[in-house]
Amino acid sequence: MKLWGGRFTAEEDQLTAMFNDSLSFDKRLYRQDITGSIAHAEMLGKQKIISSEDAAAIVDGLKGILSDIDAGKLEIKDAEDIHSFVEAELTARIGEAGKRLHTGRSRNDQVALDMKLYTRDHIDQMIAVVTELHDTIEAIMKDNLETYMPGFTHLQKAQPTTLAHHFGAYREMLRRDLSRLVDTRTRLNECPLGAGAFAGTTYPLDRDMTAKALGFDEATVNSMDSVSDRDYLIEYLSDLSMLQMHLSRLSEEIILWNSNEYQFVKISDAYSTGSSIMPQKKNPDIAELIRGKCGRVYGALMSLLTSMKGIPLAYNKDMQEDKELSFDAMDTVEHSVILMNGMLKTMTFNKERMADSAKRGFTNATDVADYLVRKGVPFRTAHGLVGELVLLCEKKGCALDDLSLDEFRSVCDKIDEDIYKAISLETCVKTRKTKGAPGWLIENADEIF
Question: Of 106, 154, 246, 251, which residue is the catalytic one?
Fold first, then answer.
């Protein structure tokens, strides 16, 4: 059923119909469309715009449609979009009363409402799954406060740290992600229903009633902006892009740590795949896919920004392009978060290998310099002396800890026996007690967690 056929006399071109129709992707809005229609019908009855009998029949009919779709008894098909499908099905079930549902409403404010409701529901779901991932990372942190490993800059070993400290960085990223999701939800929570095509309506709608019924903070205050606003969706796609970027960074590290060269972690078989030709292979494909799909989510954001950049007020059909790419991005990021959570929960860490790697990369070189500073050597001078010690170690093929006291003193006679304790992994980590450092995390774990 077409909702707009009255003034048309020629048949619609088949390719035009296919190009215009959106049911294949907007059918996932059925719950939001029916929920919004129920609120609209109840308001129409309360305002005596339609009879209370018709309003009750519409509401009962809509609830029946929702129940049948949920139960798999009703297939969504043979319509231009989800709005026309629901209205046609309603009219088939309850007769003429069904044709009164659209009184005081346009598809423009209807789809704006549906998309806001769907986005709001998905934000709530994302907050839940990101919180689960956040909690998994916190559990890893608690279990690894003194799991020593090398920290990196430029992918070069830099200073010793702990696995808890390393994962703490991702916890902070997720905390910011959660904050952004909450902020976006707050900003979008204004109800566009009742804006009509763009100029409101002559019917005495109670927009505050429908806004409250649908869980919005208030009704929107400009009807043109109500139907043409996709800021909330662009903002949400930005949030999702940043979240996926954080997952991609973590995936990259898992991929590196899982390699034969690192051997820091072992990924569960449940989150790995094999090779069709090399029987020994166990590939970190899920981490690689999460990393790869980051570009896909970025693409959704850039696509919607580009679609919106030249659209004049008010509604234009270009805005139909917001749905497919947004739905895809939402699904992609939600699945990525869930998979990352499962992968981390089942991952095992090679703590001995991590600690040995920290010892073998001169990660305590800065601590030797700090040791010399405490002995009265200027830092810049100490920096140069430690460089000489590193060169000596490279020639010998050993770590700084392996140098004899005589070898230390051949470079600087201020070095004493206490150098070995001063540059041990435990000392290097635990003496870094400035807020946010690994030693501070160990010392304040009870308060932090």
Answer: 154
Per-residue pLDDT of the chain (449 residues; tens, 9 = 90+): 555 455 555 676 777 767 777 898 899 999 999 999 999 999 999 999 999 999 999 999 999 999 999 999 999 999 999 999 999 999 999 999 999 999 999 999 999 999 999 999 999 999 999 999 999 999 999 999 999 999 999 999 999 999 999 999 999 999 999 999 999 999 999 999 999 999 999 999 999 999 999 999 999 999 999 999 999 999 999 999 999 999 999 999 999 999 999 999 999 999 988 878 887 888 999 999 999 999 999 999 999 999 999 999 999 999 899 999 999 999 999 999 999 999 999 999 999 999 999 988 899 999 999 999 999 999 999 999 999 999 999 999 999 999 999 999 999 999 999 999 999 999 999 999 999 999 999 999 999 98
- Residue 273 DSSP one-character state: B
- The one catalytic residue among 24, 51, 52, 275: 275
pTM beyond 0.85, yes or no: yes
275 included as an active-site residue: yes
Token pair listed for 26: 């907007």
Active site (annotated) includes residue 272: no
Q: How far apart (Å, rounded) are the C-alpha atoms in residues 101 and 219?
A: 20
